[in-house]
Structures
1.
Amino acid sequence: MIVTMRIGYFGLGKMGKNMVLRLLEQGVEVVAWNRSKDPVDEVCAAGAIRLNTFEEITQILTTPRIIWLMLPQGEVTQTILDQIIPFLEPGDLVIDGANSFYKDAIRRSEQLATYGINFMDIGVSGGPSGARTGACLMVGGRKDDYDTITPLLLKIAAENAFAHVGPVGSGHFVKMVHNGIEYGMMQAIAEGAAVLKEAPFNLDLKQVFNLYNQRSVIESRLVGWAEQAFKDDPKLAHISSQISHTGEGLWTIETANELGVEVPIIEKSFDVRIKSHTQEELFRNKVVSALRGQFGGHSVEK
């Protein structure tokens, strides 16, 4: 294995751990840290270097350092960032690859700039399987920094699946809207599946969604995941109809309102998720939950 670069990687959840395993296979040396021990043990067994304390950043990573954060958005990301800043130097680069709010990315860039540290925000799509086999990367930041990390992005992304979309904040903005669109698409698939279920023809939903995914207008990864969900559990008997949600859908709605753009489909899809926690079981909601389980590894069982 030829080592081409070394990065510090903070956060080994479902996405982070899989991305680190991919990087190791691609010849990147990864210095890994996580709040819990077991994921660090797993990636170290695959060849990663353990970071025991933040002080070791200065010893194990040479300047200019590349630090990738893959932590829960909000307070956790900010806390860890604040703790590692004293061990970084001017010219180092911090990348936030989690689902952070785009305004937080802009604020963190300004915070790091006071220390001479560069910052980029990268929206990552594809779920845990994409992190392992090749993700879609939406990159915000300075063009010079983008050019610097392009060799790294080539190792993380699927073929032709990354782009510099604009300045700091734009990567997370594009990913935020991506997730808002995802809400609407999933809701449409779920409503269609509910109508098909009630049809007077005793339709095989696995067969129907397989057919939909053979060059029809609605052919898509989501339709393919719906087919797989019906293959795994034809009646979705073991799937909860309560739909969890993360911040991006609401952020998309709030941002659209700030910009004076109406987003009725995304708003309704978000409203369905909120109400699902107080409603009786609905097959329509089960389909959305099943889709979330297929692509995101989210817990959706009753």
2.
Amino acid sequence: MSETKIAIRDLYKVFGPNPLAALKAMREEGLDKPKLLERHGHVLGLENINVEAKAAEITVIMGLSGSGKSTLIRHVNRLIDPTFGEIVFDGRDILRCTDEELRRIRREQISMVFQKFALLPHKTVAENAALALEVRGISRDEYIPKAEKWLDRVGLQGYGESYPHQLSGGMQQRVGIARALTSNADVMLMDEAYSALDPLIRTDMQDLLLELQQELQKTILFITHDLDEALKLADHLVILKDGRIVQQDEPQTILLEPSDPYIVDFVSDINRARVLRVRTVMDKTIATDGVSIAGEIDQEENLETVIAMAEGDTRKTYLVKDGERKVGTLRMDTLVKSLVPTEAANDSARAR
């Protein structure tokens, strides 16, 4: 199991002139977000947040506008300080860091990709991509080639001498990703990084991120309000509502076992075949005596791929493999049943 890179523990954020007093009142009186605002004139931004971001994984934090997701990610590099709680980065509570230590973490260990690109208009594309290295005092002769290398990797070969206004929105966001990669930081914070892009460009950027992540194994915290994007990218998914975590788990588990009517609503219209993976619905026994095996399938393939392979024939059974290792079998009739929302989810929906 991966080690924990970032641990957020018992985190609260209250906005207002006397947040500690408001937090105390909230706990003592059992107030929710609307009541805290009504009685004490303070806004509850985050309530009792506990999240562990594992090294080399993508942790996606999602929710609708006002859910607290952007507030949360800004705590990780202390652009916002909490009212109460801990943020442990590489085993150390960054709330106890000195200003100099915090600057070093921001320069060298944590990079950020913004929704609005945040490129400097007077600098070239290569200079923008190399900004973190320039701030560290590295010479131009050294940082420009490094920036050009990552610009090439994100599909911007030959654009290093251009300026941001000469690029499309999708290209500008690629510069933002190149800048984060050029910094060589272990952690990337991505705050609604793709939400301003057109759908096709957005899909391309998601694919690019997954491709790069497979090679680079960064620890990524990705903020989005889009469930399809979250399910596509996340190793671990955290869903917020009104500053609270409603459910967090592997995306497959959330889709199959929604724990709250709010989550049921979220997942009701999702194309389950495109999201669910073979390993989630397979039979983990591999006894195939007397069973006609139609073929082999990797455990990480989505169910849509298997349906196409089987040509819709529900009588077929496939051998599931993890690399060269046999790990289970998948019957097509079982696969089809998994595409229907669980009874538990239906019960939750009816209970509303």
3.
Amino acid sequence: MNSQHAPLPDGTRAAVPAPCVPQPDPLSVLLRTGPFSEALRVAIQNRGLSLSRLQERLKQGGAPITTATISAWQSGKYRPERPHALRALEALEKVLNLPARALSSLLAPPKPRGRHLNGAAGRPSLAEAWAGVLNDALEAVDTRWTAHLTCVSRHQRIDVDARGGEHMLWSRQVLRAETDGPDRYIISYQADQPGPAPVLRPSTPRRVGASLDDPAHGILVAELLFDRPLSRGETVIVEYVLEHVGTRPTAQRAGLYLQVPVRECVIEVRFDAAALPTSCHAFHVPHASADIRERMLWLGADHCVHTVGLDLPPSYFGIRWSWDDR
């Protein structure tokens, strides 16, 4: 250890220990880096409760689990994957005085079990669905569950203002879990031109996790966190609004990069009466294909157009429009 020397009355100098630099709490480090088993073991050790006492607390809280299971978790032999185990882990975090999801966030996706749990096989990643456009932005969010959610139905509407700018995007979809564990949905958005990201206003679920906006490319990605992890076959409704409160980017298309199959997809565009397009076309581009399928759309008296896709595979699907004088 380095030391300093303080003068004594006789002129000699006595060694004075240098001040110690505080070391980070081991548990705090483990909760950031993992692994899960080690973080759980240290958290239990810090709490000073025996496994039997933990079991009793969990039972009282309505989340019964055996001491053998807790022991297997902290040894790394097993990890919580099933819905009842994940609920017990949530209760365990409370008993150990840890922040919500402090331990569950360290879990990797569950290991596949059986033919029903391979619903993500063959589906592109979210980055691949976006053709690499969002690669850097997606590093800021947890995309491990996106391919495990099938879209039963999706309805998206865009409002275009009198100057041809995108005012608001509303989205509502019903998702079904293809495996146990999905706990979030990733919103991914890119404007037709650079500019400030829109403001996210979630309706359900209301909790927002990690997010990133990139004004240089007009990109926004964000996590919407479910109330709890879903069980396989369970459905959830996701609804939100993206509103441009300042600069509104000029809009020329309303498109969706579909990472997973969609049974029913509706895209609607509402135009201001002062900025009606001269032409509108629906388009569909299957994933990893150059085959662009288009058809003309007719603007209604209400200044709206829409397109409907049924049983769509992973693809790029939407509406494009143009103005002769823009």
